[in-house]
Each structure stands twice: as structure tokens, then as C-alpha cells.
């Protein structure tokens, strides 16, 4: 087990290394000059040159990369070109809202999607199966922000149950937090539910045709025990996998949803940084999200053995 | 150079053969309706300049944010432009981006995938690079690419293409890995066929069917990503009406004029829904096992 974890962790090093080379080249080889952003419009060529020098932009490319990479390994992600604050501080300030909303989304998604998929497979080809499948095809087809605006229109503007936009941390009161977090979480959950419900249904359909399910039913095991204990556990691995790979969708969704609901999280931070060409922030954020994605998928792979004792590492 | 004598069927026969219905199978009405709806949306978008009642770009300060009327069927936007004309015209660029991104990413992914699947030495390096690209969230990568390369049509297509390429590569590679063990490929290698000939004549046809399915999904997701990019302010230049741009402008006026988001949103969702349904149909027809290869 530990050997496996170690090997997997070592395997993430080349991935993250390539990501960082890629991000570095992406930002350095495309038009756009960080020094010009920093200097403003009124800068003279001499001032510009001084700033370029101090940022190390006149060094050869590989020297720039190694300097940047070395600093990063020491936990120094640089300072923002726009706000002149430490990138790591900026990110940790904005992490809370995103993590809270993401966790809520995952909980909502799994609680909704798994039973949906199980019931759809159980009542295969019934109206309920048709409804679940329609929802999951539809969930993939509507842009995240359109879902967000539909929910705002219904629940915030027409019914006035919750505020339109904004964010309050759970520390300011759970009621205030939930009333503002529920719409963004539901918005984000739509596509995730569609994905997980679809995979649960497919995986369950396969398992429900197995002999041991027939045996369990024949010996009189109650149907919900058959479904949730015998079938779902055996169907769990593909479902877990899709929760892991779907995490990329969640990250993309966070970026959009935070803009719709005006949430000060890392998604907004990244978009603002990209649009303002705040290079250090962009580099840090892309690496961070790539790292999170890789780690989540490692955790997912490790969790297989919890559900399926045949899998050993 | 000796070649294996083959009577190759034409590309058309390969494709019609691939998608032929199994005996006794019925498709049902769903795919037919999806194809019809999609055809109507595509025709309506492509022909939009012929029939829309107003110039989608002409602004009129006197008729800002008008409600729907006989003159302006869906009302006007904050600049006094006709929403109906804009939405119908907007579909052209959105669909073009969808098709463009699908074609480009399939072409690039096919080339890289063939190489990765056939040349074992290149495989390791190529796949590590592809894994790394897949670890970067598609939307972030795409916004960064547009923000850095400028808001042109080409740069948006490229930005949507790059994150999609690794998925195509993995698919093509997995098909090639299975196909290269087939006796006819081993025979071709043993007989000394040239490398390009083996790749193009023997391996490429195996990848066509799964690629068509993958291409439809990429097309659908590209239309979605275009909308998201425009929405975040990193799409095609705002002077060009696209579904994404119209919705992006609707953000500020959402409470006054929800139609600015909902009308393009409905058309776009309908369009993606139909493309996805057709993709699912094609996949089911092809081979139920294909789903497993995608991972």
C-alpha cells in the first residue's frame, strides 16, 4: 500500500514538471510583456528596461525557468504584478469560499446522483429511467452559467427565497452561508449529477445482470439490501473513477459559477489574473489546480480498495 | 517492395458499413428528431443574413431595451440592437467554432495518436505530455490561450482545440495498440510495407468510426466552451455576435432583460443536446465496447 502510494506520488512529479514547463513557456513565448503591465502606460523605455532587468526578463529562457522553478520549490510563488501582494497569500485568502462551495457541491451531487442512477438501473426502461437519462443528457447540454441564471431567476428573483449573489463565510452564521451557497452549489452540481448518475446507472445495469444478484434475490434478501449492499458496492469502482475524472469539470465549473454569483474564490481570482495578465498568479493557479486534480485522482484510486476488497495495492 | 493485395472499399463504404444497423435493430424516433432539429438550427443560422429583419450590428439609441413587438420579435438589447437578428446570426460563428475545433483537434490528435500507438519509443514521452495537458483544467487553459493570443476566431478555435487533443490522442492510440497486433498488420510489416502506408492504409481506417463519435462530442463541447469563454470575457471579439457574446452582454442587464441570456442559451443548449444525442446513437451503433476504450 505505502509502496504503491509512494510510486504514484513519484509518478506525479514528471506530470507536474511538464505542466510547469508548459505554463512557463505559454506565458513567456506569447506576445505580452509583464514589464509593460507593471510600468503602466507612461513609462519611458529606460524605466521599462530597468523593470525588465529587475524581473529577470532579460536572462536567457532556461535561466528564467530555473530561477522561477527553484523559488517555487521553496514555496515562493512570487508577487502579483497588479496588487503587489504575495501570490501564496492571495490564494490562501480566496481558497475558503471555493473549498466550501466545492465540498457542498460534491456532497449534494453524490447524494442525488447515486440514488438516481441506482433507481434508473433498477427500473430499467421505465419512465423513471427515462427521466434520469433525460436529465443527464440535458445536464451536459446547458452551459453552467445559464443554469445559474435560471436558478437565480426562479429562486432569488421570483420566489425571493435566497439572495441573488454574494458570499458569506460559515463563520458569519450558517444560515447566511447556506442561503448564499445553495444556488452556486446546485448550479455546479447539475453537470456533476448528470455525469455520476449516468455512470452509476451504466455500472449498476452491468452488475444487476450477475448471477450473485439472482442468488441474493432467490434466497429472499430484501430488494434495497440487494441494490445497495450487493450491487452498488460491486458497481462502485467506475462510479468512483468518474467522480475523480469529473473533478476537472468541477474546477472549470467553479471558475464560471464564481463569476455568476460574485463569489470571491480562487476561480474568480484566476480569471481576473488571466484577463489582467498577472503572470505569477496565473502560473501558480494553473499549477495548483493541476496538482489538486492529480491528487484527487490518486485518492480516488486508493479508495477503490475500500469498496472492492479484491483490489489490493 | 511487396504489398499485400487488397481490394480496399472506398471511404464511403467504410463509413456506411460502420454505421449500418444490425439486422432487426430499430433506431426509434429520437435520433431522427435530433437530426431534424439540428438541421433546422444549422440552416437557420447559416442562412440568417438572408432573412433576419434587422442588421444585427446596427445600434439605435432611441430603441434601447424594447420589449418584444412586431418590429423587434424578441425585443432589443441595451444598445438598441434587435435580439432576434443577433441570436440567429450569432449561431453562425458559434457553430463554425464548434465544427472548426472538432476538425482541428481530431486531425492533430489522429496524427499524434497514430505515432504514439505505433512507435513504442515515442509513446512514453507523448503520453506523459498528454497526461500533463489533461491535468490542466480545460477552461483555464483556454482562457489563458485566448487572453495571450488575442480574441480572434482562429485563436479561440486553437484555445478550445489544445485541451481536447489529449483525449483524441488517447483514443487513437488505444485503437492502434489493438489493431497493430492484428495478423494483417503484422503481415504488412513482415512484407516490408512502408511505414506511412501501414499507418494510413491499415491502421487509420480502424480509428475512423470512434473518431467520428469523438468528433461529435468535441463539437458539442466546443460550442459550450466558446459560450463560457465569451461569458468570462475571453472569447471572440465582442463586435462579432456569437451566442456566447450575446449572453455575456446580457450579464449586466440580466434583471431587466433575461431574454438576452435565455434565448441564445436555449438555442445553444438545444443544439448541443441534438449533437450529443446523435453522438450517443452513433456510438451505440458502432460498438458497445467502445465506451471502455475511451478512458
From TrEMBL, chain A:
This is Peptide/nickel transport system permease protein. GO terms for cellular component: plasma membrane. The chain crosses the membrane at residues 99-122, 134-157, 177-197, 237-261, 281-307. Its main location: membrane. The keyword Heme does not apply. The lineage of its organism: Bacteria, Pseudomonadati, Pseudomonadota, Alphaproteobacteria, Rhodobacterales. The keyword rRNA-binding does not apply. Pfam families: BPD_transp_1, BPD_transp_1_N. It comes from the Bacteria. Residues 95-300 form the ABC transmembrane type-1 domain. Gene3D superfamilies: MetI-like. Belongs to the binding-protein-dependent transport system permease family. Keywords: Cell membrane, Membrane, Transmembrane, Transmembrane helix, Transport. It is found in: Cell membrane. It is a multi-pass membrane protein. GO terms for biological process: transmembrane transport.
TrEMBL record, chain B:
GO terms for biological process: transmembrane transport. It is found in: Cell membrane. GO terms for cellular component: plasma membrane. It is a multi-pass membrane protein. The keyword Cytoplasm does not apply. Keywords: Cell membrane, Membrane, Transmembrane, Transmembrane helix, Transport. Residues 91-279 form the ABC transmembrane type-1 domain. The chain crosses the membrane at residues 32-52, 95-119, 139-163, 216-240, 260-279. Signal peptide: none annotated. PANTHER family: ABC TRANSPORTER PERMEASE PROTEIN, OLIGOPEPTIDE TRANSPORT SYSTEM PERMEASE PROTEIN APPC. Belongs to the binding-protein-dependent transport system permease family. This is Peptide/nickel transport system permease protein. It comes from Paracoccus homiensis.
Amino acid at each position: 500500500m505505502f509502496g504503491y502510494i509512494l510510486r504514484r506520488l513519484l509518478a506525479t512529479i514528471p506530470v507536474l514538471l511538464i505542466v510547469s514547463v508548459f505554463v512557463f513557456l505559454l506565458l513567456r513565448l506569447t506576445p505580452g510583456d509583464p514589464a509593460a503591465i507593471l510600468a503602466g502606460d507612461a513609462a519611458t523605455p529606460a524605466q521599462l528596461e530597468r523593470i525588465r532587468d529587475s524581473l529577470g526578463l532579460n536572462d536567457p529562457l532556461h535561466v528564467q525557468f530555473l530561477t522561477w522553478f527553484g523559488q517555487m520549490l521553496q514555496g515562493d510563488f512570487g508577487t502579483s504584478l497588479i496588487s503587489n501582494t504575495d501570490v501564496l497569500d492571495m490564494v490562501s485568502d480566496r481558497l475558503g469560499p471555493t473549498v466550501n462551495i466545492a465540498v457542498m457541491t460534491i456532497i449534494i451531487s453524490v447524494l442525488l446522483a447515486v440514488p438516481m442512477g441506482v433507481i434508473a438501473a433498477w427500473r430499467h426502461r421505465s419512465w423513471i429511467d427515462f427521466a434520469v437519462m433525460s436529465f443527464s443528457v440535458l445536464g451536459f447540454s446547458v452551459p453552467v452559467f445559464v443554469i445559474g441564471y435560471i436558478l437565480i431567476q426562479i429562486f432569488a428573483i421570483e420566489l425571493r427565497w435566497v439572495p441573488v449573489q454574494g458570499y458569506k463565510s460559515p463563520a458569519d452564521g450558517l444560515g447566511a452561508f447556506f442561503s448564499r451557497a445553495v444556488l452556486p452549489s446546485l448550479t455546479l452540481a447539475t453537470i456533476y449529477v448528470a455525469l455520476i448518475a449516468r455512470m452509476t446507472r451504466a455500472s449498476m445495469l452491468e452488475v444487476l445482470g450477475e448471477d450473485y444478484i439472482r442468488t441474493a434475490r432467490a434466497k429472499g434478501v430484501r430488494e434495497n439490501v440487494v441494490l445497495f449492499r450487493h450491487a452498488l458496492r460491486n458497481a462502485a469502482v467506475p462510479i468512483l473513477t468518474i467522480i475523480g475524472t469529473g473533478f476537472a469539470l468541477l474546477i472549470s465549473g467553479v471558475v464560471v459559477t464564481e463569476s455568476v454569483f460574485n463569489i470571491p474564490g480562487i476561480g474568480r481570482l484566476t480569471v481576473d489574473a488571466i484577463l489582467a495578465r498577472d503572470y505569477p498568479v496565473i502560473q501558480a493557479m494553473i499549477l495548483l489546480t493541476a496538482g489538486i486534480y492529480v491528487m484527487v485522482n490518486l485518492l480516488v484510486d486508493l479508495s477503490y480498495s475500500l469498496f472492492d476488497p479484491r483490489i489490493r495495492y | 517492395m511487396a504489398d499485400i493485395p487488397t481490394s480496399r472499399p472506398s471511404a464511403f463504404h467504410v463509413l456506411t458499413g460502420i454505421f449500418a444497423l444490425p439486422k432487426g435493430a430499430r433506431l426509434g424516433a429520437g435520433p431522427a428528431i435530433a437530426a431534424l432539429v439540428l438541421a433546422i438550427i444549422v440552416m437557420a443560422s447559416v442562412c440568417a443574413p438572408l432573412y433576419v429583419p434587422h442588421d444585427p450590428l446596427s445600434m439605435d439609441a432611441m430603441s434601447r431595451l424594447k420589449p418584444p413587438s412586431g418590429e423587434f420579435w424578441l425585443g432589443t438589447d441595451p444598445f438598441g440592437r434587435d435580439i432576434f437578428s443577433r441570436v440567429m446570426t450569432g449561431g453562425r460563428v458559434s457553430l463554425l467554432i464548434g465544427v472548426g475545433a472538432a476538425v482541428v483537434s481530431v486531425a492533430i490528435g489522429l496524427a499524434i495518436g497514430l505515432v504514439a500507438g505505433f512507435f513504442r519509443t515515442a509513446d512514453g514521452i507523448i503520453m506523459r505530455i498528454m497526461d500533463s495537458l489533461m491535468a490542466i483544467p480545460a477552461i483555464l487553459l483556454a482562457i489563458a490561450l485566448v487572453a495571450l493570443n488575442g480574441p480572434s476566431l482562429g485563436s479561440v478555435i486553437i484555445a478550445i482545440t489544445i485541451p481536447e487533443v489529449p483525449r483524441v490522442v488517447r483514443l487513437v492510440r488505444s485503437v492502434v495498440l489493438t489493431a497493430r497486433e492484428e495478423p494483417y498488420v503484422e503481415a504488412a510489416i513482415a512484407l516490408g510495407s512502408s511505414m506511412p502506408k501501414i499507418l494510413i492504409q491499415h491502421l487509420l481506417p480502424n480509428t475512423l468510426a470512434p473518431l467520428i463519435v469523438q468528433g461529435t462530442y468535441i463539437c458539442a463541447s466546443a460550442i459550450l466552451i466558446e459560450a463560457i469563454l465569451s461569458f468570462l470575457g475571453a472569447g471572440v471579439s465582442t463586435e462579432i455576435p456569437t451566442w456566447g457574446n450575446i449572453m455575456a452582454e446580457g450579464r449586466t442587464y440580466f434583471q431587466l432583460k433575461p431574454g438576452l441570456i435565455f434565448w441564445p442559451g436555449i438555442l445553444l443548449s438545444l443544439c448541443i443536446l441534438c449533437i450529443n444525442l446523435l453522438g450517443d446513437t452513433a456510438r451505440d451503433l458502432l460498438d458497445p465496447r467502445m465506451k471502455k476504450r475511451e478512458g
